[in-house]
What does this fold into?
Amino acid sequence: MSTEIRQLQPQALWNKFADLNAVPRPSKKEERVIAFMKDFGKNLGLETIEDAVGNVIIKKPATPGMEDRTTVVMQSHLDMVHQKNNDTIFDFDTQGIEMYVDGDWVKAKGTTLGADNGLGVATIMAILESTDIPHPAIEALFTIDEETGMTGASGLKGGLLTGGILLNLDTEEDDEIGVGCAGGIDITATRTYNEEETPEFKIGYEVSVKGLQGGHSGMQIHEGLGNANKIMNRVLFDGFENFGLRISEIDGGSLRNAIPRESKAVVAIDAIHEDAFLLEMAMISTAIRKEYKTMEPNLEINVSKVECPRKIMDLGVQEGFTRAMYAALNGVYRMSADIPDLVETSNNIARVVVKDGHIKVGCLTRSSVESAKMDLANTLRAAFELTGCEVEFSGDYPGWTPNMDSPILKVMTKLYEDLNGEKPHVAACHAGLECGILGQNYPEMDMISFGPNIKGAHSPDERAQISSVQKYWKFVLEILKAIPVK
It folds into this structure.
């Protein structure tokens, strides 16, 4: 598999991607990839620094004749989102990603691929290792923990970098030049509840929602994809209203920045209503699948009999919880009034856990407008506080305000048009890029973001387009040659 990947063009980039994907690199567990990157820099004889939080900086002098050009910071993040299909046996902490070629795409076997942001990292590694690519002085910045908190970018101190231009290689459309992004904040609702003994006349069932596509909770939030947590709540609410369904456990979703693909619940119903319950579940499942048939053709809602749970959620708490889940917004809250087709503000109900007397609901709210971000955060807070939850805001990070007068933007726009015969799409995105955070300590740095086509990021369907990587690589090389003088 790795051999097949290593034969792809440009080989310098794909070989580094294969090397990188052999190293486990989950967010907040980046010790191995940090060591890998430090060894890489030192083996090249380049100045290599690990800062106080674990970011790695590798500095390479300009090639002959380009010493008078502005120093460029090339930046990507080391960590990757870990998602796998339910039936895939894989240990992200110990195994390298298993890749294969499918036509014009590189994919992974049942897991995320790590193209986000591994292709950016591999690009920078290939430039650092090169002996025949013209470039100005480069400061390669490899940040940690972008996917779960952006603590690497947040912890980067001022003064470590001297570059005047930052190239962030973390965009996923090859015809797009990114000039802005959304900020975000985590909303976590928790509460405890009394468990009740399950009455003898009840029987147990497991309800599962699976087969959803999932995806990036920023870039794909407007696509109408199914959210397993919201679908599960809808099914449970219906069962409670009609058949006295009582919740014992729920386990739905996974990462804050991934649209939930799966959810499971263990419930108890009145035995006398079993036949009617199964009929109703079949009817509501058919209705939901029909609603989602275009976007989610593989959606499954299954109901299977299990041993009756010994404990169930307090009735009053269950009523409040299911109503709060219904009331909590998931999806687009507002589109931008200033940038066509850009989502301004959204929320992803990412994680729901109900077990052993504890409720925990995790959301990620994003917005390119700070006041709107907090407006939606408070909307969610109100919905959950009304049902007795405590709500915590954390992980707040700023957006990146577009600068349409950016000098490097003008250079790159012309280069793209010369190379491809068409204008690029200059846009802000609804993902959380590190540029806004980095700009707090480096306010004078001229920043831009771009990358190759990556589809299905943050899901096991993640894939990178080979022809697009070739197009992107040529663009990178031309940009480095065209960096203006200091």
Summary: Residues 255 and 350 are 6 Å apart (CA to CA).
